[in-house]
C-alpha cells in the first residue's frame, strides 16, 4: 500500500535527496512539501534536477493538511525542528533529520547547541536513528532522530569495536574528510567554489564539532564509562562523501573480525577484505557503507577507514531506511541504488 | 519475465554504468561479463563501487555460453566490436555501444575511423540507436548501434529544427563541453587529474572529431541535402555530463516551438521554458535530457543548449532504453533514476 | 625609484591579486589599503595567503592620506568607483578595475549597467585599458579604465582580424568558458562549490552580458561600422582562466597570419603554431595570453582560441601593466611570473 | 654573478617547477635540460605553460657538457639518480630531488626502496635537505638530498616538539592529505581525473609509505631513541598542497610555543596564532609553510596542522633554497613569490 509522506524543509540538500530517493521508491508518495521562504514555488524551480517529477508546490508548514499524511520527514535547520515538530499532530510519524532530538541529556544539548531545548517531552520519545544499532526501537518509534553524518561515519567504525572490547577506549582518533554538501546550501565565503576547491583545511578542530555530543553519548553508553575521542573534520573539495580515518590501539585482526562479524548480515555495510581501505568514490550516490581495516607496522595499532555518502546513508538515506521501518515497509525499499561512478 | 543479458567489455566505464542501471532494473539479469585483460577477476575488484552486487566473474568472450543469453551489450573499443559481433550467435540480440555500426556508408566509416570496415553485412542490418527518432526500427532490430555521446547531444538540439525547417542549414555551430568520462578509462597524460582539473581546452578542433560522421549522415538525411556543421568539443574538468551550446540562425520562438512540439511526449526529454538554459548538473546520473532556447539580441539568431549525461543517456542509458525496446520490456524500465545533485 | 600605491577595495579577489603581483614588483610599494566593511582588519585576516607580507591595515577610503600616493588602483564594485574616483585628488593617477569608465557613450553605460553615469567629466578623460592597443594613450593618461575580463579575451582574438579585414563582420560568435573567480567573492547559491563544481552551464546568454558593451564599442570603432557579435559565457568549475572559442568566417591561414603579425613584438601574447589550440592551464597564474588558430574542414571558416587568466591579464595584471606605463616604469615589471602548472 | 644550472629530468612536474622558479630568479640561468624519452623536444612542447621562455632544447644526459655548469638539479625518478649522479663530474654541485640519498643507513634504504643502494660512497657525502634544520651543512655540501614532500611536512610539525621535549614520543599520528601532483606525471588509473576527482581515499596505509624511512631516521636521531609514528597519507582531489594533521600528546600551549620559538626567524615558516588551523589554499604556488596549533578538549592533547606546497617547498622550492645556499646566493632568491589565491 502506498504511504503518503510530507517533506518539511524541502528546499535544502537533504530535502532534495529525499525526493530523489522517493522518485524510485515503490510505495511512497509525496503529498506535501514545505519551504518557508520558497513557498509558492515549484520544486523544479528550486532544484532544476527534479523538474521532471510531478510534485506538490512548496507550501508553508502551517498550510499543510496533515490529515492524509502517514509520515513527515523533517529536514529543517537545527533549532527549528523542535517547535515545528511539537506542533504537528501527535499521531503523525516523524523522521527528523536535524540535530534537535539526538542528544538524550538536555544539558548536553544546551552545551553543544548553545540554547536550551524547547521540546523536552518530545526528546524523551525520540529514538536515535542509527538503523543497524537501533532497528527494533525505530520500528516502533513515533519520532526518529537522524544522526549527524560524521557521527554516523565514526560510529560505524567504532561501535562494534567498543562492543567487542578490542580497543583501548582512551586513545581513539577520528580524522574525518567531509564533502561540502554536509554544510548545506548556506551562503558562506568558505563554501564558495573559488575558496574551497583546490585545497583543504580542518574546521571545528580541537573538540569543538557538535557531533562530538553524539560520540560522547553513544560510545559512553556502549562502554559503560565515559569515552572521549579526538575528532577533527576537514572540509573537502568534493560534494558527496565522508571518509573517516580512525586510529585505534588494538589487535588489527581482532578489529577486522569484530567489524566483519557485526555487519555480516547488514545489507548496506560492506566490510572490505583485511588490509583494504575505503574510498568515498565507491559509495557516492548510494546508501552503502564501506569499512576497511589495516594493521599498522606498530604492533597493536590499527587504522579503520569508513566511507559513506553524507547526504544518503549519512542523512536522507538513513531517514528513508528508518521511515521504511516505521511504516512497516521493506527496510531497503528505494535504497538499493548502486553508487554512481565515475 | 526476466531477461538474461551479457555485457562484453564490462571493465570500462560504459560497462560499469550498464551494471549500475541493471542493479535496479526490474526484469533484467546479468548472466555473463567479459573483460579480456581482467578475465578471472570479480567485478568488485575492477570497480569497488559495485562490490555489493552478486555478479558473474569476468570471462574471456570465447568462454561465454551464449545459449541462455537474450541480449548482449557490447561495450568494447571501436574497431574491436566488428569481428566480435560477427562471431556471436546470429539469433542473439545485440546493443553495441561502440562506433562500429553507426555509419551507413563504408567509405565514411573508413574516412573517420582510418581503416576499412570488416563486417559490412552486419552494418547493413544495424539500426541507429537514437531512440526518440528510430524507436520503431529499434524495436524490431537485431543489432542496434549506439550513438556517439556528443552526436546524441547535438542531434537532440538540431533534428527537430531541421525537420521543422526553422533554421539556416549552412550556419550551424555546435560548441560542446564534454565531461572527461567520455574519454574512457584510458591512460593518457591529458586525462590525469593534475593536467585536466582546474582548466579547459578544446580537442579535435576544426572538424576532426569522429562524431561529425554521425552529424553529417543524420542531418543530411533529414534535410535531403548535404549539411555540414562546425563542431568543437572541449575537455571539461568534471566527470559526467555534456553541454552543447548550439548557435543557429532562425526565429528563436519558432526554434523553441519546434523542440517543445517534437519532445512533448518524450519521457526523458525536458524542454525548458523559453529563455532558460540547460545545466549538466541538473541531469548528471540520469537518463534525462534538458533542452533550452534563448533568443539572441541579434534578430533571427538563437542559442540552443542541451545537457545530458554522456555515460547514461549518451551511452549506457540509451543502450538500456534500446535493449528494453528490443526485448519487449517497458521502454523506461530501470531508467527512471533521478539525477544526483549536488 | 619606488612608487607608492594605494589599493582601494583590497578585500576582493582583484585586490588580493594586485597585492600578489606587487609582492615581487621591484619598485612598487603599497602604502594604503581600503576595504570598507573590513576596515581595521589586517590583510592576512582577510586573505590568509598574504599573511607573510608586511602591509598597511585596511582603512576606510576617507581615512587614507593620498598626499604621498603616486597611483591608486581602484578595485571597487561597479557603480561605486564613479563617486569615489570623482572625490580623489585630481592629480592622483588612477587605474580603475571596475566597469565604470569603460564605455565612452553615456547612453551605452546606462543601457548595460542600468543607471545613469554620475561622473561624466571623468569618463571623458578615461583611456580604455587594453594595453597592447592603447599603449600610448595609457602612458600619458591620468585615469585608465581596465577592461572586462571576457572583453579582453574576445578582443585579443578579434581586433587584429578586424584591423586586417580578414573576417566577415556579420558572423562572429564568441563562446566563452570563464573561471568562477571572475564572479568575485559574492555570496550566491550558484557560486557555491556544491552547486558549481562537477558541471557547467551558460549564463547571461542571448546577448545580455555587459561585456557586450565593450565589444560593440571597440569592434565598431575599429571597423568603422556597427559590429554585433553573439557572445555566450559559461560558468566553469575552475577558479582561474578564461577560454574564448571564437568562430569566424575567413581564411584560416590569413587569420593566423594577422594574429601572428600583430602580436609578434608583444611580450605577453603568444600566438601558437597554426593548428594548435589554447588551454587555460597553460597561462593560469600569469600575465600571458595564448592564441591559437585552427582551420575548419569547411573552407573559409576558422576557430580562434584565446586563453588568459581572468584575475591577472584579464584584470589585475592588466592594471599593473598599465600602472607601470603611467608611472614610467618598465612595462613588464612584476609581471614576468611564469604560469603555475600543474 | 649569474650561476649556470642544469636540470636533469626536466620533463616531470618537479622539473617544470624548477623552471618556473628560475624564470624570475635574479641570478640563475638554465644552460641544460635533460629528458631522456623527450630528448630533442623543446620545453614548450612538453609543458606549454613554459613556451614563452627561452630555454635549451631537451637533451640526453650523456650529451650535456657539464664544464660550464655550476650546479645540477637532479629531478629523476627514484633509483635512477644513483648511477647518474655517480657518473657526473666530481666537482659539480648537485641538488637531488629523488629519494636516493635521503636515508643514511643502506639497510633502511633497501628496506623501503626494495633494492640495494648502488652509490654508497656518495650517500655518505649527502646532506639531508630540510633547509631550516641543516642549513650549515647544506651551505658547504657538494650533494644535497631533497626530502620527501610528506616527510618535510611532518617534520615541520614535529621536529621542534621533539627538540623541546614537549610531546609523548610514543603516540604520534600524522594524517596527511596530499595533492595529486606529488604522484608525478605517471599514467595510473587511480590518478585519472575520472577516478580521483570528487572523492578521497588513503594509500600506503598501515606504515607502508616510504617517507616513514625519513621520519624514523630523523625523529630517532633528534630524540636519541627509536621513534615510530603512525602515518596515513590520503590522495586528494587537488593538484598542489599537503596538509598534515598531527595528533600529539602534550600541553598545547607548550607545543605552540616550541613551534613559534623555533621558527621565529625563518622567512618561510609562518606559525599561526594559537587556535588557528592551516589551509593548503593559503600556501599553494609558494615556498611558504603555515603551522597551526589547536588545543583539544581533552587536556594534554593537541592537534598541529601544517600546510605546504608539495611541488614548491616540499620539493623544487626546497631544492632552490638549498641551491642558493650552496652557490653562495641569497637563500630566498627567486622564492619570494606570493601564494596564488583563489
Automatic annotation (TrEMBL), chains A, B, C, D:
One of its GO terms (molecular function) is NAD binding. The active site is at residue 149. Keywords: Amino-acid biosynthesis, Arginine biosynthesis, Cytoplasm, NADP, Oxidoreductase. Its EC number is 1.2.1.38. Its main location: cytoplasm. It is found in: Cytoplasm. Residues 4-141 form the Semialdehyde dehydrogenase NAD-binding domain. GO terms for cellular component: cytoplasm. InterPro entries: AGPR, AGPR_dimerisation_dom, AGPR_type-1, NAD(P)-bd_dom_sf, Semialdehyde_DH_NAD-bd. SUPFAM superfamilies: Glyceraldehyde-3-phosphate dehydrogenase-like, C-terminal domain, NAD(P)-binding Rossmann-fold domains. GO terms for biological process: L-arginine biosynthetic process. Catalyzes the NADPH-dependent reduction of N-acetyl-5-glutamyl phosphate to yield N-acetyl-L-glutamate 5-semialdehyde. Belongs to the NAGSA dehydrogenase family. Type 1 subfamily. This is N-acetyl-gamma-glutamyl-phosphate reductase. The lineage of its organism: Bacteria, Pseudomonadati, Pseudomonadota, Alphaproteobacteria, Rhodobacterales. The gene is argC.
